[in-house]
User: Fold Endoplasmic reticulum membrane-associated oxidoreductin from Encephalitozoon hellem.
Amino acid sequence: MLWILSVLLDIIVALKLDSIDRSVSRVNNTTYKNLEALVSKDSYSLVKTKDLGEFHSKSKCTLLSCLVKKKSIFNEEHINLLEIREAYTGFKTGDGSAKIWKKIWEISNEDPLLPTLVSGLQFSILTHLSSFHKKFFGTYFPNPTLFGKRFQDKHRLNFYLTYLLVRNCVGSITIGEREMDEGLSIITQTIKSQGSTDWVKQSVDLEKTIQRVEEMARLLKHINCEKCQLWGTIQLNGLRAALKVFSGSTNLERLERFFLINLFMRLSVSVRENIKLRRYRIPLLVTASLYWVEILSFVTSLMAIFLMSRIRNKFKSRIALKSCM
Assistant:
């Protein structure tokens, strides 16, 4: 069944990229595999819950997809990001999250740089929610209809600007001997070899911008979804670290590097996935397939229950027959 669906998806996909997509995708491919290998290491995938700060709002989401699995390592609570994909959770935005995002936008609009970066982050979030929408037998299926409904080209361009800024910041960080063994040096050297973009910093108070990002991160901790709180905290702290490098402070603390690299990974995934989502000729057909998968799962479950019931009834009948004899 999964093979048939994958073939169907291939048939209804059409490759249509513009020059910006091709350029950013080509650059992204030069670091993607090394970055993916880096974030698979414990030093960039395991985070202590205390390092994320206190979440002011306990998750009220009852969906399992909203919850974050935690584990104890050396008597300290950790979260393994490899086990928690940034994906669609089913969490509804009506439970206060829309108001929180409205406040975030109010803060960003006070800054000359943040509207572009927040727009880029939201585009990346939308890409993840649409690309990894439904999970079936361990495989995620996309929802290109959701993506197309919310897609705006200006947000795509802002996303690419955000990606390139974060990428340049990663290439500018100072690393020590320990990081040399973790593969970070390969990534930074690759980025440096490609040259950097000369960003215009005039009339931008980066210290004030960083303070506004910190305020946004505090606001996101009030969203009633653990997974949303987790990835929001990581990515906004990653943005804060990027802006710190952007301001000229290239020596980052361990936790700042952790946040920055994980933000870079999420944006790198979005570079690939947003292109895939826009390539579908018939997005409604792909979206409909999501529900066929659910229907198949439901029917299979009913059949299993029915068969178990039949077997149990036969077993009871035999026991009753033996007791009569």
In short: DSSP finds 13 helices and five strands in the chain.
